[in-house]
Amino acid sequence: MDISTMTIRKALDQMQAGEFTAKDLVQACLDSIESKNENLNALLSVADSALAQADAIDRKRAAGEELGALAGIPIVIKDNILVKGWTASAGSRILEDYQASYDATVIKRLRQADAILIGRANMDEFAMGSSGETSHYGPTKNPWDETKVPGGSSSGSCAAVASGMALGALGTDTGGSIRQPASLCGLTGLKPTYGRVSRYGAVAMCSSHDQIGPIAKTAEDAALILAVIEGSDAKDATSVAGTDVFIPELVQKDLKGVKIGIPKEYFLAGMDPAVEKAVREGIEELKKGGAEITEVSLPHTEYGLAAYYLLMPAEASSNLGRYDGVRYAYSSNGNDLIDSYARTRGEGFGAEVKRRIMLGTYALSAGYYDAYYRKALKVRTLIKQDFDDVFKQVDLIACPTSPSVAWDLGAKFDDPLTMYLSDVYTITANLATLPGMSVPCGFKDGLPIGLQFLAKPFDEASIFRAGMFYQSATDWHKKTP
Amino acid sequence: MKLSKEEVEHVAQLARLKLTPEEAEKYQGQLGSILEYVEKLNELDVKSVPEMQHAAGSANVFRDDEVEGSDQDTRERIVEAFPQKEGDLLEVQAVFENQET
Question: Residue A382 and residue B46: Cβ atoms within 8 Å?
Fold first, then answer.
């Protein structure tokens, strides 16, 4: 079996046909981990139980027992999602020794589907980063070129899938953290609609933006994972009831009658011309499939990043208030309680996390709340209205995922604002709570380029339809590092 | 734009972050340049625009206020994670101090 080109769909079919076992599949992934993880630093730990779990699935299959929808499929889990008994460090020193005491809802659902949780993926600290470099456990490297960043913050999740360490991954996306690294690593990554997937058991960063989603080699694989993890959950009041049943339209192989808008504000001066060319060629393919392409306008796009970089640090500074060294995690004793808090947090958090806590605390502090936080909430409304208006005319939006391909490790590390600009095309979906997916659409100098689809809230079906059509017409997603 | 040293120290105190002098100096410039960038929002007239209140767009979600017991295993894991403990009890530093009068 060639693990580098294996998909979840193929593996499910071939295991069912008896061509190989779940144990063979897990072993192939473990071999990739063995040979590649030392260089890539994609996984922080590997589950000892993976082979035994695979064996159990094989025995169930042999006995003719009913199997779950992802039976025997190795999945890696971003380190900010709790798996009972596993360390959940969120890429931070402050949670270095923290062991999850319960399973996140998405993990429970993966277990029920007989998926195999094969390892814990490296990530930017508390999901704050666009390059994987803010992890306390060292940067992850891009499997396509180890001198480049894999993108972030789901850096390890993407590097692991791109290098055959697993067939799929869970990531989280607050401003592009699934779609941007998927783009930079040549994968398909979906940020579901806010509310489609329960976040119970995910380490909170910016609660009005955070969403868990799948990363895989194809749109079909991403849909297979989403179908398992989605649905309302009493333990996450923001998960929306009535969306549990979701059947991806896997069979439609054209785009007849689909209206796709191309937002003119998403092709800015300063984007890599090679990215623009590949994305525009991708759009041509959609047209060949019968889609009706029109130019649309999202006039407040240029304010999205500024609004995001107020709202996200504000919410994060509040969410991260819980890391005070009292009930769990890293704890440093000072002269008194206040001093202990400050030491614990000063020593436990890395530079980017502290920067964002400072920024958020500033934006929420007396005298600045109206000028910064409240204003950003109003701009968020304007951005959502832009999309509401456009989705009256079109079913889908197609645009670039990232303005550039993967850049050199270290290149933007000391310049936060330039780093933040790499999220400019992904952030708006989080602000407007929309689903978005990146699919591979070309290369520049051997580095992958991503095409992004955005749709109305809870219309992932349209995104999958476009993604599956696109992947039936092109083979960018079949390329391997 | 650069934040003053006092501003950075004040915010660090509010955020309960002990910063090294090097960190504090770095944040003066970095926070300043990010704040300068977000000033961009002042180009927009948002007086009559409502604030976005809820990302899921839904109203309150209610449930019955029922106490659910935690299972023994979860309980043990939580107690195990306490940084300082006495038996099964979480030990914390004194919150109030005796004041000599």
Answer: yes
